[in-house]
Amino acid sequence: MAAPLSDAPLSPFKTIAVVGLGTMGTGITEVLARAGREVVGIDVSEAATAHAFAALETATAHAVRRGRLTEQERTDALARVRTSTDLGAAADADLVIEVAPESYEIKHQIFRELDGIVRPETILATGTNALSVTRLAADSARPERVLGLHFFNPAPAMKLVEVVSSVLTAPTAVAAVTELAIELGKEPVAVGDRPGFVADGLLFGYLNQAAAMYEAKYASREDIDAAMRLGCGLPMGPLALLDLIGVDTARTVLEAMYAESHDRLHAPAPILKQLSEAGLTGRKTGRGFYSYEAPGSATVVRDALTPPEGAQLAPGRTVRSVGVAGSGTMASGIAEVFAKAGYEVVLAARSEEKAQFAKSRIGKSLSRSVDRGRMTAEAAAQTLERITPAGSYDAFADVDLAVEAVAEDLEIKQQLFATLDKVCKPGAVLATTTSSLPVVACARATSRPQDVIGMHFFNPAPAMKLVEVVRTVLTDDDVHSTVREVCVKIKKHAVDCGDRAGFIVNALLFPYLNNAIKMVQEHYASLDDIDAAMKLGGGYPMGPFELLDVVGLDVSLAIEKVLHREFRDPGLAPAPLLEHLVAAGCLGRKTGRGFREYARR
Question: Given 30, 98, 468, 560, which residue is catalytic?
Fold first, then answer.
């Protein structure tokens, strides 16, 4: 029988055992030792413990060089660590943190042995990020003292710690471990027991979709990674991140998630199995989605899949003047981008008044750039002079490139393209900035579908570096070359993708956002905890609910509906909570209320 829990506070964790001294176990050991805890590091062989201690010496020496530790603090921290190959060394520990390989068999064996070694009041924590904490606890002699303590890699740098409780876990154990996390300088997030918990539960579905997108040859690995870094502000692209995590590890996590959810978004992409079984598991082996200088190296080297440097595209068409159709924020931002790059710009809207208003918005934007020292007053004035407002699309008669940025409504866009077909000169390139609608449907509204292409800018266009260049099956090669050349001149990073819903960024971003909404809808975690988990654990610049409120819940719902309609995957069906909020008029920051409430200006 397990020892009964009293209401008395748990004793402080003076001695902590870490079982499993791989990268994560060694990192956790460093965090604990630097925070003044006595640490017993345990692994199966002396070679493993020696390697871990050497890594600890190297990491703390690096911390001294960077001024984060004094030499005395380093000496004291190392003195607090002892290693062993005998699990019996955990006998005096107040807390045991298990970070063995992601295998139920291995972890069960460790927990069974610990039952006969540690004191009745010792808390047992598993560092799993994929397996069921409840299942591990149920087989323990003291299930009420078993919980999950999920650190993120690298443990010394990453602030997030997920504290995972099962239905068997005692609240006092959760409280004690949460307090420890705070004392370690971490930000604990309380979550329930489901595969992947919060951060990995959202992250790995996104990574899996990126792998499937690459496997389908929809876009190159470089373009997928660049799109997510530049389009979403992520520190790493998904394929590079899979190589860092380990392709085999990602596959294990996804298998566990799929076994629980049966959601196709979690069914591991076949390429993950192929790479794993070939031993191409990422950085640690020197090759995964990318090739690396050596096993363990972060330096990517060229391989057979690397795009050739200076690859020649077909000669493009000459572009001297650009027409921008629309009067909203996106249209004025795009017009500003082209004018800054030296192009003569015609900014046309449905009325002269709307066009003038859009130009005045650009003037204010340029003034802010001058105030911030990003451009001179003279350059701002010259930029504004290059923009000619017009109240009719007839003003596009002589432009070389026409870019539409009107409402995200297919019928409206098709009507506009029919008009552009009539007013634009032969040979003019016609581009749509749609983020989710089929480009070919716009092209078919014209008599020259070969001249039509997608140029998906991101908001705010002057600041965001990414443009998704979307070819249809009808787009001419020289039209594609023209737009690629224009992107270079306007200092944007172009990525190529085919004409399917969501292109790269939205096709990967919005299922992730939808899954976050489902977590709240199912009362699994709070808005604040999910946002914190993704910012601290995933390096996201904004949490999913912050981002949804900025994008607009109505816009988000429209994109999710398009993705669901195109791919017909039940997992992409918009979360009912999102639909309810939109129906209630809670659209985010623009209405003062979305997932959160905002002060009205």
Answer: 468
